[in-house]
UniProtKB/TrEMBL annotation:
It comes from Schumannella soli. InterPro entries: YaaA. GO terms for cellular component: cytosol. It holds the Pfam family H2O2_YaaD. It comes from the Bacteria. One of its GO terms (biological process) is response to hydroperoxide. This is Peroxide stress protein YaaA.
């Protein structure tokens, strides 16, 4: 199973002082693309005021632009611990025992605007770059789409895509029967399903944690639906190529 996760804008600080090792990252075919984004963000970071504008940072988060200045030597930590948005707070990977963390290392991939596809346990620095950021001389969409899509197409088995649409566009998952996109919905009094925004991230975090803790190994969409029924998740087929995770009204 391949579980595709979005990144988060905010990152935990700190980590190992050994620095970034590009050769140790998953999906080595993306190394040249990673070097190109690192070079572009390095050029942008020569002028932090310009970087703040390009990264669309507000006054309260303007200091995040400085994270991009020394990415090759900055402290690193596993990607699954580095990100700390709503999904990752709900997942709470640092609290997981070794077997669920190993499961994440084998099955979970984080889609990053800077590094492309990252294995959950790949060691990366804190940085600031979004799917819609502008880098000098580099369009993130054109830069990543084909390379990441090719890497995902080479995967075998079930693919469950939990990414936001912006990150899914940077590297579309393969179009096949065992590759599905997850939407989080709630049902109103009229029985209609409605998409959730902020609260969908927490639901995805809970789902990811449950998959890891149960060492889930569904080979097909039907097997995933059976697993969900057994573990208390309301997961059902939605639009073609999609699954709906139904949660209560927040």
């Amino acid at each position: 199973m391949l579980l595709l996760l979005p990144p988060s804008e905010t990152k935990r600080r700190g980590g190992s002082t050994s620095g970034l090792d590009l050769a140790a990252l998953s999906f080595p075919a993306l190394t040249d693309h990673r070097l190109a984004t690192l070079a572009a963000i390095g050029e942008l970071s020569r002028d932090l005021d310009a970087a703040v504008r390009a990264l669309k940072l507000g006054p309260k988060s303007a200091d995040a632009a400085a994270l991009n200045v020394d990415l090759r030597t900055a402290p690193t930590m596993p990607a699954i611990d580095r990100f700390d948005g709503v999904l990752y707070e709900s997942l709470d990977a640092p609290s997981l025992a070794a077997p669920p963390r190993d499961w994440l290392g084998r099955n979970a991939v984080v889609s990053s605007a800077l590094f492309g596809l990252l294995g959950a346990l790949d060691a990366v620095p804190a940085y600031r770059l979004s799917a819609d950021s502008r880098l000098p001389g580099l369009s993130l969409g054109r830069h990543w789409r084909s390379a990441q899509s090719s890497a995902l197409a080479a995967s075998e088995g079930l693919v469950l895509d939990l990414r936001s649409e912006a990150y899914a566009a940077l590297g579309p998952a393969p179009r096949r029967d065992d590759s599905v996109y997850l939407r989080v919905v709630t049902e109103g009094a009229d029985g209609r399903a409605r998409a959730l925004n902020h609260f969908n991230k927490a639901a995805k975090g809970r789902l990811t944690r449950a998959l890891a803790e149960t060492a889930a190994a569904p080979a097909t969409v039907d097997a995933l639906l059976d697993w969900a029924a057994e573990t208390g998740f309301v997961l059902r087929r939605g639009a073609p190529g999609e699954l709906d995770l139904v949660v209560g009204q927040p």
